[in-house]
Amino acid sequence: MSVDRERGVAIVNEALGPLEGDTVFGQRWGNGDLIRITTKELSALHEGKMLAVDVEGEFVVYLQLDEESED
């Protein structure tokens, strides 16, 4: 597992629901949904595009590949 608390991003082996204990970021109250991306969406990230993800019909999270990262 890899956790970058400053950026709020973690690489984990499984998704936890809110009633299954603390997440890698501590206790959370949301439903802990799993969002699966397709190979087409992954390719779009590698092409420099972003993914917009709807979160519970209330928030939008944008995902972008960090090509400058050494990880």
Automatic annotation (TrEMBL):
This is Uncharacterized protein. It comes from Acidithiobacillus ferrooxidans (strain ATCC 23270 / DSM 14882 / CIP 104768 / NCIMB 8455). The lineage of its organism: Bacteria, Pseudomonadati, Pseudomonadota, Acidithiobacillia, Acidithiobacillales.
